[in-house]
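Study this protein:
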Amino acid sequence: MGDSDASPERGRIRVGLSTASVYPQNTESAFRYAAELGYDGIELMVWAEPASQSIATVQAYVRKYEVPVLAVHAPCLLISQRVWGPDPVAKLERSVRTAEALGADTVVVHPPFRWQRRYAEGFPEQVAELEADSSVVVAVENMFPMRADTLFGRRGGAAKRLERRGGPGLALTAFSPSYDPTDTGFQHYTLDLSHTATAGADPLALAARMGPGLAHLHLADGRGAAHDEHLVPGDGTQPCVEVCAALVESGFTGHAVAEINTQNARTTADRAGMLGRTLAFAREHLNGLAPAPAPTSPRSESV
């Protein structure tokens, strides 16, 4: 979308790091990794950690590490239902105001849950109104269904079952009206490449349906497991290279944000390695830069 004050170079796709990618380390740790590894900015996941909810604290991190906030992820996860209060309407508006205060130009939000009836009924109108009143883009993210094999299948065989049947099979959606936001239609979207894997969806076809409204990419990977994996791009089965090529070809001007799961990292060096591999993938396939040796990590610590 439009250039933000944080844009490092006009015309280059900016590559950010989601603060969720360093969990169980904290928000400040994400800023530190981003600065050390050379990410262009941060996507702030707002959740239970007090620092993630405080504009003043995050602004202090921006100054300390000289890393801007590119996007804010609204507190719409199951684990963040009580963050900023129980009202999802108010929380989405507050997310936009937080993005404005931090100089970010994008808010990422999930479709409403089915039990959030009032919120779901007014969600398309609220998104449109927020965008009309602000320069911040509200990019609605593709999600995935709750697959029956999550409960009844053997965990290790879920990806093979999905491949055999060509889709998720018997499944329920927790989202209203759908886990695919293009079924409703919004001005702007976030494409998540781990969610497409779990949903058994074709990310290239989904990107085409999103069209010029595709404003934000969650760069990750997945193998089609029944649970959301968020692998390092290239470690799964998603056409990550092809998606990146399609974005470059289309003149994509939004953000690409690394949103990977590093909870299995044993040390900070291990985590930095995973984050560095993801950044290198993005630099090669989005920015056209040749792969370079990963930066030397700081002293390794257990995490």
